Amino acid sequence: MILLARLGLSMNGSRTLAVKGRKSGQWHTTPVNLLIHDGRRYLVSPRGQTQWSRNLRVAGAGELRLGRRTESFRARELGDDEKVPVLRAYLRKWRMETGIFFGGTKPNASDDEFRAIASRHPAFEILPAE
Fold first, then answer.
1. If one looks up domain 2-128 in CATH, what number appears?
2. What is the DSSP letter of 78?
3. CA–CA separation, 102 vs 29, rounded Å?
């Protein structure tokens, strides 16, 4: 997926996320799925508290890359209650790829079931860079 994003091809919203390391200050890249939900854009960490999510939490900003296009952005981490519709939409779109990381939660699960897993899956709203 990262190779396709580097070539400028997006598979269902795939991008390369670049974010500065919280300790090293060096740029790190990883493939991500950019979710567009209700007119807003989000990044969700299906694998939980990953290095990229920790780095983004501290940096508060990063870049989304697709081919030669680079978009700088600010990130706002969502609270657990805010994550419910975002996680549901994420699972609807990418359940085949990432569903295993959500502990059996399905897109049609109740809000309470999503709240129960929300703390394990960082999610960020992507905002324009200032």
1. 2.30.110.10
2. P
3. 23
Beta bridge partners of 41: 36, 126
| 3-state percent breakdown (helix, strand, coil) of the chain, nearest 5 | 35, 35, 30
Domain ranges of the chain: 2-128
Tokens (6 digits) for 55: 């780095």
* pTM of the shown model: 0.88
Q: Biggest alpha carbon distance in the chain?
A: 41
CA angle 9, 14, 18 (to 5 degrees): 100
Query: Contact, 123 vs 77, CB < 8 A?
Result: yes
Tokens of residue 109, six digits? 């699960």
Q: How many CB atoms lie within 10 A of CB 13?
A: 14
Contact 63, 73 (CB under 8 A): yes
Q: Please, are residues 58 and 24 in contact by the beta-carbon 8 Å criterion?
A: no
User: For residue range 5-20, what is the model confidence (pLDDT) as tens digits?
Assistant: 444 444 556 889 999 9
Q: Which one-letter amino acid corresponds to residue 93?
A: K
What are φ and ψ of residue 57, in 5° steps?
-60, -45
